[in-house]
Amino acid sequence: MDDFLLLLLSTLDSTLRVSAPLVLCAMAGIFSERSGIIDISLEGKLLGSAFAAAAVAAVSGSAFVGLGAAIITSILMALLHGFACITHRGNQVVSGLAINILASGLTVTLGGAWFHKGGQTPTLSGDARFSPITLPGADFLSEIPILGSIYVELISGHNLLVYIAFLAVPVTWWVLYKTRFGLRLRAVGENPQAVDTAGISVTFLRYRSVIIAGILCGIAGAYLSTGQNAAFGKEMSAGQGYIALAAMIFGKWKPVPGLLACMLFGFLDAMAVRLQGVAIPGIGEIPVQFMQALPYVLTVILLAGFIGKAIAPKAIGRPYVKER
Amino acid sequence: MSSPSKALPAWIDVGVIPLINILLAFFVSGIVILIIGEDPIEAVKIIIYGAFGNDYNIGYTLHYTTNFIFTGLAVAVAFHASLFNIGGEGQAYIGGLGVGLLCLALDQYVPFWIILPLAIATSGLFGAAWAYIPAYLQAYRGSHIVITTIMFNFIAFSLMNYILVNVLIEPGQMSPESRDFLASAQMPTMQEAVGWFGIEIQKSPLNLSILLALFSCLFVWLFIWHTRWGYAIRMFGFNENAANYSGINTRRLVVGTMCLSGVLAGFVGINEIMGNHNRVMLDFVAGAGFTGIAVALMGRNHPVGIIIASLLFGTLYQGGAELSFEIPTIQGEMVKAIQGLVILFCGALAYMARPTIERLFTAIVVNNGARKEQTNG
Fold it and tell me: What's the pTM value of the predicted model, to 2 decimals?
């Protein structure tokens, strides 16, 4: 029983680790898309900020300076997206795709030229990384059966950014549903004309939304390269931005369901690692590729309307043209 | 894409503005090269020599061009119906799988001239099948084509990975690749083909698939601009409601257009699997599906534009490879960055320069007009 509990806890523990960047990106996506701006550039922002964090942390020796650089980089990319989609009313999918491809090319180009490691950044150690935090009382509580191990194994011992990631969910919920800004943000994604008529700038609102998305993706990027790993590697985001996008849609553009979707996809990922080469009685061995494809398959099935209905914000993808 | 607000002469809209956008993309690329401390002019020289320096390099350039024509046409056909097919990458991948399965099944039994038409049909069919599901879901279940095609790219990667690692892998091999095809399932290389006419060139991956690419261009041009179906597609792309009210079955149109798009993307399999690698392997598409988006945007969804844009990207890919070889500080990924910039400036920011050009144009025309009036009066 104890072994099983430990196995379960360690699987859940890695679920948290894997889903942390997904959660941040999904919340970023919610801010952007609820304001009416399609954000497939989550992937690019994640990759770009991961590079910025690792590069700056390697040079400065401080993970926090790296985090700052990651956030700034990601905001700049978000502003570029905004400039194309909001100011110039460009196609939002095209713009997002451009940013993704640009990030994937530029990170390796710049990294290769600066660090001469074929696009990798130097390995980080000590203060240049976000190291695990042992929460207060972990030693003391570990004596208590079950609850103690849950606290020690599962809740304690993550790095700062993981806690920020999970804190981002209630904050997103609060901002979206309990503040005036959130109400306007949701309104601008549904009916920008109405917001404009009320004398509120659609442009400014949408810019603020994409900037918030930039900040969140920046934290996620820093987590990838200075928390979860100890360096930036070529294509290290590996589609996680798209998984987050899928999770956001799976969560129907809402923070809490979005969180659950991220945890589900993170859990599938953690299970995929554990199930490799293990035969399940009655089913046999589940191919790891099947587990990897499952988040995408599930999202497609959801989008097809077979598990509830995912309804996007009404004004999504349509540039707002003020009537004269 | 936002539609143009005021009418400018066609040559400005089709010629000058795209040119400005491309130049902007290259200008920013030049700045990136300056930032990493290299000389952009030198880089351009190496790229051009690397792409066209000798028949071997030209062969590579045209081989890449062939891929980009297929994927560019695929994206363009969907664009005409205002559908955004991001799934070219996955459709090409699955198209290649189809070619591979056919060649592995038949190459011991039948000659090349039977395999070839079957392979072309299979690649198209597999590509179309991979586009069919997202298309069906868009048309009948209301899920958004962009998201589903993105998801289908990832599903295709996992599927191929599974099939190669578990099914097609050559026994006793470590790398997930199928066995090599026999000669009966290999597309003649350009070297062999021009050899029939007594011309000698070096061997490169360039093969006869390029003829299929050019034929596809002709077909798309005829189909989109000279058939009723093409007219329906463009009408649907221009105004969905109008198409609906004029009695077009828009659902079938969406599915049909996406399937045609998938067929064209699937042809990449012919060029890469039958023409170049002669076996099924991982990642042979290598981003051509995404480059197709840049190509279609730059070529303004017209076959002629697509050929020009494909040639440009073929040049960049081949020249870029030489560039990173000559100047190790510049990674091969620089080409990807340029591609991103082209998509940004020719796609998302396509109309950024327009107001300025419009003002300039009106200023010049109005001034000229005023001057003429003065001289006349």
Answer: 0.89
